[in-house]
Specification:
The structure is a homodimer of 260-residue chains. Chain A is built from six helices and eleven strands. The first copy, chain A, is 22% helix and 26% strand. The first copy, chain A, is an alpha+beta fold. In chain A, the strands form two sheets. In chain A, strands 1, 2, 3, 4, 5, 10 and 11 form a seven-stranded antiparallel sheet that branches. Chain A has a four-stranded antiparallel sheet with strand order 6-7-9-8. In chain A, a hairpin with a 2-residue loop joins strand 3 and strand 4. The A-B interface holds A 42-43, 46-47, 49-51, 58, 61, 63-64, 71, 149, 152, 175, 178-179, 181, 185-186, 259-260 and B 42-43, 46-47, 49-51, 58, 61, 63-64, 71, 149, 152, 175, 178-179, 181, 185-186, 259-260.
C-alpha cells in the first residue's frame, strides 16, 4: 500500500477493501483530516481556521453541497473515499460508518485539514526518529492552556501533539516544519510541558504515551484534533469527521506543500 | 513619519493630519489593504482568500459588526484610522471619503489583506533595488490570463505587480519572499510577460510604467488588487476599500510574518 498512488488507494477504500487506518499508505501524498458541517456553521469554522492557522491549516473547502474536493482530488468523492467516518449529533458521538452517502445533505461543506503525517516524512528523511512510529502506536496528544482565538461560536484550547527528540534534532525539526505552514508549521513549544498546562507528559489526553529518553526534550506541534474538539464543543446538530487515523488521501504531493 | 510607531501614525490619521499615502510610514510595521463587505458576502470572500492565498493573503478578519481588528491593532478603529476610503455601490466607484463612520453598519466585516510593502523592506535590506521606489512612482500592475480559483460569486483573473531585476536578484528575491506567505509569498512568474497574458509590459493596467534595464528580467508577484477587482466584479450593493496607497497600519511587525 506504501507505493500505490492516492487514486489507487481511494479506489480500494471506495470498494471497502481498505476499512482502517491510512497511516503509511500512498507515501508522498498529502493526507487530510475531515470535518463536515452544515453551511450555517461554515463561516465561523472557516474564520476559526484563518485565526488559528497552526491548529487548523486548511487544505481545501468544498463548494456548498458538493462532495468533491475539486482542487486537491477532483476524481474523488468525500462520502465514500475515507475508510471510516464518525457521526456526531449535538456534539455527541453517535455512530461510526464506512460510507456517508445516506447522510449527505445539500447544505453541507467539507473541510480538509492538514495533518502531521505530511511533515513526519521529511523528519524521517532527515534521520530524525519519530518515536510513535518506532513504537508503532498513535502520537501522544494533550489539551493545553493555550486558548485558540475565538471565531463566532467556535472557541476552546489548543490540542498539541508531542514528539520527543534530542535538542539538535529539535532545532533541525523546527527548520523543516517551518517550511510547511499548511500542515501545522513550526512547533508551538519546546521543552517544558507544564508551561503550556500539561501536568503529566506520560498521560496524554488522546493517543498513546511514548518513551522519552534521558537526552531528549519534548517538542510540541499544534494538532488537527483541535478543530474537531472545538467544533464538537459548539454542539452542532450534525458533524461528520474521519474515523481516527482513517484520513482522506488527496492527489497533492507533500513535497509541493513546502514554501521554501 | 518613517520612525513613528503604527499607533502614532494611526492617531495622526484619525485626527486627519495625515490624509494621503502611507507608503514609507511607520517602517517595520505591517500595512494592509482593506475590503469591507456585508456579512452575506463574507463567506464567499473568505473562501476566495483560502483558495487564492497568494493573491489574497488575509492578515485579519474582524468580527461581524465590529470595526476593531482585535488581533492586529486592538486600539484602532477601522472606520477612522485609514487616510482615505473608497465607497463602491453595485460594483461602481461612488465617492472617496476620509472617515467611514457614517457608512458603517452592524452586519459589516472588514478584511485586512497583506500588502507587498512588507516584502519590499527585506528586498531593500538585501541590496535588491526596487525600481518603482527608485523612480518614486507606483508599482506597475497587470491583469493576467491566470484565472483565480472561483469561490461562490467571486471569480476573475489574477492581477500581478512587477519588479524588474537582474537574474541573480530574482533568485534571491524568490528566497526572501517565499518566507512571507502572508504577503503574497514567492513570485508567480519570472521572465516572459506574454506567457501570463501581458501584451505590453510598458503599459500596466494599474500603477505606473517603470524602466527595465538591458540586463534585467521582469519578476511578477500576485497583487492585493486582485481581491478588490474580483469583489467589484460581483457587484455587491456596498463595498468599502482603502483609497489607493492609503493603507491600514497594523501593530504587527513585518519581521514577525516571516515563516523561516
Amino acid at each position: 500500500m506504501k507505493f500505490k498512488t492516492a487514486k489507487e488507494i481511494r479506489r480500494l477504500i471506495r470498494a471497502q477493501e481498505i476499512t482502517n487506518s491510512t497511516a503509511g499508505m500512498a507515501i508522498g501524498y498529502t493526507q487530510a483530516n475531515l470535518v463536515i458541517l452544515r453551511k450555517e456553521h461554515a463561516y465561523d469554522f472557516l474564520l476559526f481556521s484563518q485565526r488559528n492557522p497552526k491548529a487548523c491549516p486548511i487544505i481545501e473547502v468544498t463548494d456548498v453541497g458538493s462532495p468533491i474536493p475539486k482542487l486537491t482530488a477532483p476524481n474523488s468523492d468525500i462520502r465514500t473515499d475515507l475508510p471510516r467516518y464518525r457521526i456526531y449529533r449535538d456534539g455527541k458521538f453517535d455512530e461510526e460508518v464506512l460510507d456517508i452517502t445516506p447522510y449527505w445533505e445539500n447544505d453541507m461543506v467539507a473541510f480538509l485539514i492538514g495533518c502531521s503525517f505530511t511533515f513526519e516524512t521529511p523528519l524521517l528523511e532527515n534521520d530524525i526518529p519519530v518515536r510513535h512510529i518506532e513504537e508503532k502506536c498513535n502520537v501522544p496528544m494533550y489539551k493545553t492552556n493555550i486558548q485558540c482565538e475565538d471565531a463566532g461560536k467556535f472557541h476552546g484550547p489548543m490540542v498539541v501533539s508531542m514528539r520527543p527528540m534530542t535538542s539538535e534534532n529539535a532545532i533541525r525539526a523546527t527548520q523543516i516544519t517551518s517550511r510547511y505552514p499548511q500542515v501545522h508549521g513550526s512547533p508551538i513549544h519546546i521543552g517544558d510541558p507544564s508551561s503550556i498546562g500539561i501536568t503529566n507528559i506520560h498521560k496524554p489526553d488522546f493517543g498513546d504515551s511514548v518513551t522519552i529518553k534521558k537526552n531528549e526534550i519534548p517538542v510540541f506541534w499544534a494538532c488537527g484534533v483541535t478543530p474537531q474538539a472545538v467544533a464538537m464543543e459548539s454542539k452542532p446538530d450534525l458533524m461528520i469527521t474521519h474515523g481516527p487515523g482513517c484520513m482522506f488521501i488527496t492527489d497533492l504531493l507533500d513535497k509541493k506543500l513546502s514554501v521554501i
